[in-house]
């Protein structure tokens, strides 16, 4: 019969075994190759300090993204690109406030302050991004009656942005996701990338979250369940130092 000391020793061994894959992943150096792409999600003025939907510490992702982007031959950027009076704006729903929800034909929709309206300064990418070799900008959320968090599919789960086809055409097999916000556009992009068959990494310190009603913890749990790998910028080989 096992005594308390033996039980604790076994539990400690089990815990180490559970943590080992994560620790090994963090310790290993990941070198992006020609089959790798960095997806820079929605680093736009509306989501930065002073913006209408500012993400706390959102500006801190910019230097990290600039640094890791130099390790990638392939970079795609995204922009929220909403029409005036978009269905996701609280202002178009009588009596509703930002961060409340409504039921729409495609499911439950979080209502947001007006943000990233087409052609406005708020919709512009941060002027501090320095990724001249980015080869594609995907605009999303431009259909007035459906929101779009993911870089791959709009919130109805069926309207494609065309990104998956582009990446396949470029023979990309793995994607690294960074940007804003972790618990919405980053997470939805990562999950849809997995559904599309890509190997997916989310660069945690190159992202920041909104975290409304436990959304950040749920997003990380959903991504882990889907096989998304959670890494830091220092894990990317040529981004170290």
TrEMBL record:
Pathway: Cofactor biosynthesis; nicotinate biosynthesis; nicotinate from nicotinamide: step 1/1. It holds the Pfam family Isochorismatase. CDD domains: nicotinamidase. Residues 36-234 form the Isochorismatase-like domain. The keyword Metal-binding applies. Residues 1-26 form the signal peptide. Its EC number is 3.5.1.19. Gene3D superfamilies: Isochorismatase-like. GO terms for molecular function: nicotinamidase activity. Keywords: Hydrolase, Metal-binding, Pyridine nucleotide biosynthesis, Signal. The keyword ATP-binding does not apply. PANTHER family: LD05707P, PYRAZINAMIDASE/NICOTINAMIDASE. Belongs to the isochorismatase family. This is nicotinamidase.
């Amino acid at each position: 019969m096992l005594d308390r000391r033996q039980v604790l020793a076994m539990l400690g061994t089990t815990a180490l075994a559970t943590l080992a894959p994560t620790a090994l992943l963090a310790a290993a150096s990941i070198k992006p190759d020609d089959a790798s792409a960095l997806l820079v999600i929605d680093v736009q003025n509306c989501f930065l300090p002073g913006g209408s939907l500012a993400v706390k510490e959102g500006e801190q992702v910019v230097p990290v993204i600039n640094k890791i982007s130099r390790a990638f031959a392939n970079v795609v950027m995204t922009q929220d690109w909403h029409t005036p009076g978009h269905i996701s704006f609280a202002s178009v729903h009588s009596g509703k406030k930002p961060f409340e929800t409504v039921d729409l034909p495609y499911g439950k929709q979080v209502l947001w302050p007006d943000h990233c309206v087409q052609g406005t300064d708020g919709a512009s990418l941060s002027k501090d991004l320095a990724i001249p070799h980015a080869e594609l900008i995907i605009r999303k959320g431009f259909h007035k009656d459906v929101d779009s968090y993911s870089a791959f599919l709009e919130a109805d789960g069926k309207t494609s942005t065309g990104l998956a086809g582009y990446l396949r055409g470029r023979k990309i097999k793995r994607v690294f996701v960074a940007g804003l916000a972790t618990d919405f556009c980053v997470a939805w992009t990562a999950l849809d990338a997995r559904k599309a068959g890509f190997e997916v990494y989310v660069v945690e310190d190159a992202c920041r979250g909104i975290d409304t009603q436990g959304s950040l913890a749920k997003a990380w749990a959903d991504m882990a369940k889907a096989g998304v790998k959670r890494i830091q910028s220092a894990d990317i080989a040529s981004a170290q130092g």
